[in-house]
Amino acid sequence: MISRPRYIEAIKPFIGKPQVKIITGIRRSGKSTVLQLVKEEIRQSGVQSEQIIAINFESFTYSEILEASKLYSFIRNNIQTRKKFYLLLDEIQEVVNWEKAVNSLLVDFDVDIYLTGSNSHLLSSELSTYLAGRYVEIPVYTLSYQEFLEFRNHYFAKGQDSGNLFTDYLRMGGFPVIHTANYSEESAYKVVYDIYSSVILRDTVQRYKIRDVELLERVIKYAIDNIGNTFSGKNVADYFKSQQRKIDINTVYNYLHALEGAFILYRVPRYDLKGKEILKTQEKFYVSDISLVYATMGYRDRNIAGILENIVFLELKRRGYKVFVGKLEGNEIDFVAEKIGRKIYVQVAYKLESEQTVNREFGNLLSIDDQFPKYVITMDEFWKDDVEGIQHLYITEFLLSKGF
What is the pLDDT of residues 366-383, one digit of tens each? Predict the structure, then answer.
């Protein structure tokens, strides 16, 4: 089991504290592994094994306690002393009315609770009702480029040139299971498609009671085909109308909402840098892992710029930034990323192959009148000139940097 220290460091300050720890993310992103790492961290702090109750609700072993009162009774019967108990409950959304059980356990016992879940809307809605102010969420993403390299070193030959491996990451994505064995691209996409199908069925169709699965798939493919482009629900509805397929705008937004809840898509709002406000139209959507693009649409070089944007977006999210698409009069800034006390601006392009491209990418950033760091990220390995304080980085330099 390979450690994922970023997530452990995020959880450690809350171990033993009264807040419920919620570990969220798309299926097979590594939440269960993070939970196991938390378990080891707790044991190393001196907690006895009998004080730890770990349950994976996807295991048939626990199929008879998938209801709140039964789960509560099971845990109550296993708390045999007055010591603090640590509850690690994996894929909690499988339990009917789970939030009632969690709330009662907090009230009745001295417990420290850790949950994982694969649907953000389900967790946030129930938690806001029963556990308002008493939980923290730790999002888990598929492998970063740094983690991908660590997996490669662990499972394959060490000492390979990391610069030559970015193409593998670009083509294979970051689902951990793909990088534990020597999969071909075709086999990897088959594995990813099976993950995607499970997410669509269990965390989208069943959860939101969607009847027209074929239409849902069309909306997904529209969003995937427009990675890196702004669009609205009306754009989607108009597109379907041109294809002689009628769809209500509200249905489009409901489907996009459901796909966000299942962590297939992330919505990125636009931010008006001049007016200092979030705009409500023409957002961007990115996928939770670029392999989902290839598994559903096939590999196509023509959207390489959007794929690179997606990779940079996920890296910013992993590092705890709130991410927006910037608007400054007639210019678009790919990413405005903020976290406490920090802000960075990022432009992403495939290659700066013409003066027009250079002027656009750097010019958009030069139009911003502040002193926060600004980056242009490309796949130009040899052209590295900075322009008026704007740093031009090869994409792996950005992904591996510890400076932002």
Answer: 999 899 999 999 999 776
Q: Are 269 and 207 in contact (CB under 8 A)?
A: no
Task: Give me the domains of the chain, ranges plus CATH numbers.
Answer: 5-139 (3.40.50.300), 300-404 (3.40.1350)
Q: Which amino acid is at 127?
A: L
The parts of the chain modelled with pLDDT lower than 70 are 122-128, 157-164, 383-384
Distance CA 381, CA 96 (A): 52
Mean pLDDT value across the chain: 92
* C-alpha 13: how far from chain center: 22
The answer to whether the CB of 351 falls within 8 A of the CB of 336 is no
pLDDT value at position 190?
97
Backbone torsion region of residue 25, taken as left when φ is above 0, otherwise alpha when ψ lies between -120 and 50, otherwise beta = left
Question: What is the Cα–Cα distance from 216 to 208, expressed in whole angstroms?
Answer: 12
Euclidean distance between CA atoms 310 and 303, whole angstroms: 11
Determine the Cα–Cα distance for residues 319 and 28; give it in Å rounded to an integer.
20
Q: Token pair of 25, please?
A: 């993310």
